Amino acid sequence: MGEVCYIGLGANLNDPIKQLCTALAALAQLPQSRLTAVSSLYHSKPLGPQDQPDFYNAVAELQTELAPLALLDALQAQEQQQGRVRKRHWGERCIDLDILLFGQQQHRCSRLNLPHHELTQRSFTLLPLAEIQPQLVLPSGELLSQLTPAFDGELQRLQHAEYQACCQRLLAR
Fold first, then answer.
1. pLDDT at residue 87, rounded to an integer
2. Collapsing DSSP states into helix, strand and coil, what is residue 63?
3. Residue 115: partners with Cβ closer than 8 Å, 6 or more residues away
4. Which regions of 22-71 does DSSP assign to beta strands (E)?
């Protein structure tokens, strides 16, 4: 079914773990798409301003027939539905959904960069992605597992019962 793509999820406001579960449930309901894998839950310091709560992050694998911009529209609609407000660059948010990879496509436009332009510089995307698909080869030709050692110790992998139950329920569909 279509392309395999990877979605980065992050939240640090309004019960972040619940926000992530809500977003994952929405991904599982996308038309012409199927949620096929979800990483563990990770805890990270904010990338931007430090006067905000820490983040919870995950990565989801999705098989989709949607075009990249149609998927982006659906993700942004879900962010809006969950109440995301963009107050400041790299600031706090109740949910953030980013297309990290869309198959091997490379695409640049004002709305979407594929692969995500900072994918290889962010531990909170690389480590959860490597957990799901350690042998993944990026469109650049780099093997994902060769990039992750540089971020060792930056993230805390969490065991969270509510999150794990949510993922199991969604993947069992």
1. 79
2. strand
3. 100, 101, 102, 106, 138, 139, 140
4. 33-38, 41-44, 55-64
Residue position matching structure tokens 């597992």: 145
Distant-in-sequence contacts of 81-85, Cβ < 8 A, 24+ apart:
81/26, 82/19, 82/22, 82/23, 83/14
Residue 41 has a pLDDT of 97
CA distance 125 to 118: 9
Q: What is the pTM of this model?
A: 0.94
Domains of the chain with CATH codes: 3-171 (3.30.70.560)
CA–centroid distance for 98 within its chain: 6
Contact assessment for residue 21 and residue 163, using Cβ atoms and an 8 Å cutoff: yes
Please list the active-site residues.
84, 93, 96, 98
Pairing of strands 3-11, 55-64: antiparallel
d(CA 54, CA 68): 29
Closest CA to 133 of 75, 56, 63: 63
